[in-house]
Each structure stands twice: as structure tokens, then as C-alpha cells.
Design goal:
By secondary structure, the protein is an alpha/beta fold. The chain is 30% helix and 15% strand.
Length: 439
């Protein structure tokens, strides 16, 4: 039986086993001298065929069920985003707003059962019983981010948004993790839910609460094919922990680059073998004189705990970030209650950065809401700095949408990435299809 199950991994082997079993049983009963159909030999052969057939069907029940003409296949509500070019339209009814009390303020469930943050969008025309909101598809993401380099600076909450976005750009599908497992959060509450295999990218404890950070760095970097300048000692020490990630993907709209630079206590660390101190890749001339071999870079999780350069967020913005040649920068100083830059100082540093780098759009990226927190006000930032507000959309979201009190799963991160692209390329509107190329 184990052999049958092992060879039942694809449609060919499943049907091939049935075909072989049928040929064997037929040949036995029809080979000369032809035995009686009720002879022991023929009955034994037919019994073996029945046993093999039942075993194959049982071990591959989902596959055979899916081949039935009347079978209803579960369709991810997110997969429909690929059906309308660069945009898709999410539709919301009055009932989805008024009857979904399990959803937080300014969130609604669309007609496909997907939870979405609708924000301050015009809900309904007078007398209307529904409204629409446009979102970018995978193609729309590529068109928006093509030939752009987005730099994200912050703590682990920023990291996981980077991971969700990089995975989407890699696979073309949004993850569905345990935040979708609740029946109220799925299209069909009776469907047996199965988390995406890559949910570990946004949930360090997914599947194994004891996984080491060294292994997580290696596995996540292999999955995303990004460059991970990463080190985290055991026990954890903030002063010697660092994680910088560099992601690039080629698209028809041009290359997309994402960079994540970690900061906990207003401290960004740079390793000599990674950007911007060396070229992004070994075959690219980016005006950097240090031509250190690309192959000398450390493996994820095995990097030295003594980076060559440690800077405050403000210093990194002024001295190092321009060397990455970004088009957009979203930065904070890490944990909220730290002794580094105040919000006013960071805002002014970003404004100065924008003046010195006029081709780069720079924003403060706020923290997401902490479960149970009474802190619901976005801090005021100095010098009228532009702010990417991630606090307001996350206030009051259910605990089941987080994997601990601090870190959100994919329902939240997907919507935050939609909002991020609205900051980069302009928001969608129900009556402006041309905004994302959807004619």
C-alpha cells in the first residue's frame, strides 16, 4: 500500500496503476486455456483488482473527486484577481457592511468573501444597495512597481509586510494563512481549510514553534530568492542582531527591487559584502568602486555579528540610502518606545532626504496596531513629512488575524500592501479604470 501511495503523486501514475491492474486481471481470465469466470484463479485476480482500485481511490480521494463532472472545486477568492487584466473590481453590499459585526471599523467582506479595508471610500450613492472598489491584480502590481526600487526600514512588522509582498511578486498568489481558517473569513465555511505552505514567511512560528532563526533565514531566503544579510544570536541581543534583505524580480514592466533594512532601536547595520557597500549583483556596474566578489557573501543566518557600519535611521537616510538608488523610501526607527529619533526628528530627516534626493519619494511608515492597545493615534511627525499610516487600518482587527499580539498575518498585510501601492502609484477609484491600465 505504501508503494501505491508513493506512486500516486500525479494523474498519470494514478490512472496507470488502474490500467495495469485491469490488464492483469483481464489477461488472467482470458488467457488460454480460458478458465471459468468463476474459477478461483479468476476470482482471486478480480479481487486483487478491486483491492488495488479501492486503495488508489482512497489514497487519492481529492484528486478523483475533482475529476467528477459535478464536483465543485474550491476557488480561492484571491485567485479571481487575475481575471481582469491590471485591475479587479471588488463589490460590497449593504449587508456586507451592516451584518458583519465580526469585522473591524472600515473593513468589509466583498462578494467573494474576502475581507478588505475600504477606508474612507465613498460607500454608497444615495439609494444604492452596493458599491465597488478597484484593486490591482498581479499584472497591476508589476505595472506599478516596474523599474522602481522600494526601500522599507523598520522592525519586524515592516519585515513581514516586505515578505508578503516579495512572495506575491514571486508567485503571483497571495498567501492564505491561519487568519483565513475561521469559517467567517472564508468564501465557503464548510470547506476544509489548508494554509499555504509558505506561511512561514510571515509567521516565524508557523508549523514549528522551535525553529531556529538561522534555519528560518535560510529557508525564507531560498523561497524568495532574495539576498539575506542576516544574523540573530541566541539568546537574542538587539545590538548584535541585524537583517537586511535585497529582492529583485524581472517583469515585462521592468525589474522590481525591494530592500528591507532592519532597525529595532534606531540602529541600521550594514555589512561590507552587501549593498550598498558592494554592487547589488556581481555583473552590475552601479558606480561602486569596491568590486568584492559576489560569491564572498555570507549565507543567510551565518553572517558576522559585527557589521562594518552602524548608523541611526537619520544617518542611514542621509549617508547610505541614496547609494541604493531607490525610487521610494518608507522608514521608521523601529520599536516605538526607544531612545533614538523622535517622530519629529525622523520627519525632518525624511524631508531633508527628499530635498537632497528630489527624485525619491520619502515617507514615514507608521506602526501597525498592537492587540489590546489603547494607543490609536498616529504620532505627529516634524516638517510636515508624508506618512504611510498603517495604524488606522489595523485598529481593532481580530486577534485571529495576528499570530501574536504584535504581528499580523496575511489578511492585514495584503491590504497594507494594496495601500502601499496606492502611495507609490496613486489610489484606485471605481470610475477610473485607466489608473491601472484596465481599459
Amino acid at each position: 500500500m505504501a508503494a501505491i501511495h508513493a506512486r500516486g503523486g500525479d494523474s498519470f501514475s494514478r490512472f496507470q496503476w488502474l490500467k495495469m491492474a485491469w490488464i492483469a486481471s483481464t489477461t488472467t481470465c482470458l488467457s488460454p486455456p480460458i478458465p471459468s469466470p468463476f474459477s478461483r484463479t479468476c476470482l482471486r485476480t478480480q479481487l486483487i483488482f478491486v483491492i488495488v482500485t479501492v486503495a488508489i481511490v482512497l489514497f487519492n480521494y481529492d484528486f478523483f473527486k475533482s475529476q467528477l463532472p459535478f464536483a465543485t472545486k474550491r476557488e480561492s477568492p484571491l485567485s479571481k484577481q487575475h481575471s481582469t487584466g491590471a485591475c479587479f473590481t471588488a463589490r460590497f453590499s449593504v449587508e456586507s457592511i451592516s451584518q458583519t459585526r465580526d469585522l473591524p471599523y472600515k473593513w468589509a467582506k466583498d462578494s467573494n468573501g474576502t475581507m478588505r479595508y475600504v477606508g474612507d471610500a465613498q460607500m454608497f450613492d444615495r439609494g444604492a444597495d452596493s458599491f465597488e472598489k478597484r484593486y490591482r491584480t498581479y499584472t497591476g502590481y508589476q505595472q506599478c512597481l516596474g523599474n522602481k526600487h522600494i526601500v522599507l526600514i523598520g522592525d519586524s512588522r515592516v519585515r513581514y509586510q516586505y515578505m508578503g509582498l516579495a512572495n506575491y511578486l514571486t508567485t503571483g498568489e497571495w498567501l492564505q494563512c491561519r487568519d483565513y481558517e475561521n469559517g467567517t473569513n472564508t468564501t465557503n465555511a464548510t470547506t476544509l481549510f489548508s494554509s499555504s505552505s509558505n506561511c512561514f514567511l510571515i509567521d516565524h512560528e508557523y508549523g514549528n514553534s522551535t525553529v531556529s532563526w538561522k534555519k528560518w533565514y535560510a529557508r525564507s531566503s531560498e523561497s524568495l530568492q532574495d539576498q539575506c544579510d542576516c544574523s540573530r544570536p541566541t539568546p537574542f541581543r538587539v545590538n548584535t542582531t541585524f537583517e537586511n534583505r535585497f529582492f529583485e524580480v524581472a517583469t515585462q514592466s521592468g525589474p522590481i527591487r525591494l530592500t528591507y533594512l532592519q532597525t529595532f532601536l534606531d540602529s541600521v547595520k550594514f555589512h561590507p559584502d552587501f549593498p550598498p557597500l558592494t554592487p547589488w549583483t556581481s555583473d552590475m556596474d552601479e558606480g561602486i568602486t569596491d568590486t568584492r566578489a559576489f560569491s564572498s557573501r555570507c549565507q543567510p543566518g551565518l553572517c558576522s555579528d559585527a557589521p562594518v557600519l552602524t548608523l541611526s535611521t537619520r544617518e542611514a537616510l542621509l549617508e547610505m540610502i541614496p547609494k541604493l538608488h531607490p525610487t521610494h523610501v518608507f522608514a521608521n526607527t523601529g520599536w516605538k518606545h526607544n531612545e533614538g529619533e523622535t517622530p519629529q526628528q525622523l520627519g525632518c530627516a525624511l524631508q531633508r532626504f527628499s530635498i537632497e534626493n528630489p527624485s525619491v519619494q520619502a515617507y514615514v511608515i507608521s506602526h501597525t496596531w498592537v492587540q489590546g492597545s489603547m494607543d490609536i493615534a498616529v504620532p505627529t511627525h516634524g516638517c510636515n513629512a508624508k506618512v504611510f499610516d498603517r495604524l488606522t487600518p489595523t485598529i481593532g482587527v481580530p486577534q485571529s488575524w495576528y499570530w501574536d499580539n504584535l504581528h499580523s498575518l496575511l489578511i492585514v498585510n495584503q491590504e497594507l500592501n494594496h495601500l502601499l501601492l496606492d502611495m507609490v502609484c496613486g489610489p484606485m477609484s471605481a470610475d477610473n479604470a485607466s489608473a491601472c491600465g484596465d481599459d
